[in-house]
Amino acid sequence: MDHRNLFTQRVCFVLLFAVATALNKHMDHRNLFTQRVCCRRQSHLVYIGQDISGSPISVDVGMCRPNCGGAAARPPHAAGAQDLAQHASMMRGPVAAEGVKPRKTTLSSCGANHACQPTGLRVDRVLLFEGPREVEVIQECHCEIQPAQCMRVPSLRTFYSETPYESVVDVGGCSQSKEGFSCVPTKFNSALVETPNKVDMIQTVVVCELKESCYRVPYVEYYYEIVQHDDGVKEERLREVDVGRCMGRCTAGNRCLLRSPSDPEICHLWADKQSNLCVPQGYERHAFLSQHGKISAILSITSCHCPN
């Protein structure tokens, strides 16, 4: 009887192990399928200007789209403006459209706490009539985990692709923002990229913090100053001043001044459009004696605010 029970237990253990192994393989395969198929790069052409001959130039900057049933469909007439908004931050210069509202967040088919995002971007230099322009092009997309806290996340950029000067730089980025606050970069560094003509300096993100929509960040400048000691000796020093910078944007708010009593959706009187710039509020004055013997005054930002 004991031998029979022992044999039965061993058979059950073997069967359970086989079932668990099969489930793990299925889950791994399904997760790999989700990461590779449910998030993929799609073509997205953006007009960036005219070349030196006057011909229009469009670049396929690409876009990451989840396509496994989790993403909501968009009407055709809204796709252009929303897609342009997604790439507005990728275009450097006046190419990026202003005033285009970003698309609302939808349930991603990548799964909980994941999002379909670019995993590799290439920076292309395009020679336009107005001068050279840098355009960031999405190369690959992947289901990436979204951290619960505000933190710096890796963001790779490839410069001078397919040339002897090709280099990959982790410029960094910030995780998703929380309701009422923004996860934004507050400390920066720089990386040097060798080019055929010179060395380019690339700004990289070091630290991210939760901030309100309008906030101050450090910005250090250096000045030479002359210090005169009690014994009459003059000494030249290097003075460091954190002049600060205002970053972020302000929400315009509701501009409707008079609504219809019968239908609140109808607005009879609109206020003038106000600026959404984040501007300095407080400042300090730093005075010192310059190399030329004159008093120099430098103003530094101490706080920022939304004027409206």
Order of helical and strand elements = HEEEEHEEEEEEEEEEEEEEEE
Strand order of the largest sheet: 6-5-8-9
Based on CA inertia axes, which overall geometry fits?
extended
Mean pLDDT: 75
- What is the count of β-strands? 20
Number of domains: 3
Q: Output the structural class.
A: alpha+beta
Distance between the termini: 86 Å
Helix content: 10-25%
Number of helices: 2
- What is the C-alpha radius of gyration, as a whole number of Å? 28 Å
Query: In terms of per-residue confidence, which ranges show pLDDT below 50 for 5 or more consecutive residues?
Result: 23-34, 70-107
- Relative strand content: over 45%
Biggest sheet layout: 4 strands, mixed
Describe this structure in words.
By secondary structure, the chain is α+β, with helices and mostly antiparallel strands. Strands 6-5-8-9 form a four-stranded mixed β-sheet, with helices on one face. Strands 1-4 form a two-stranded antiparallel sheet. The protein has a two-stranded antiparallel sheet with strand order 2-3. Strand 5 and strand 6 form a beta hairpin. The chain starts with a helix and ends with a strand.
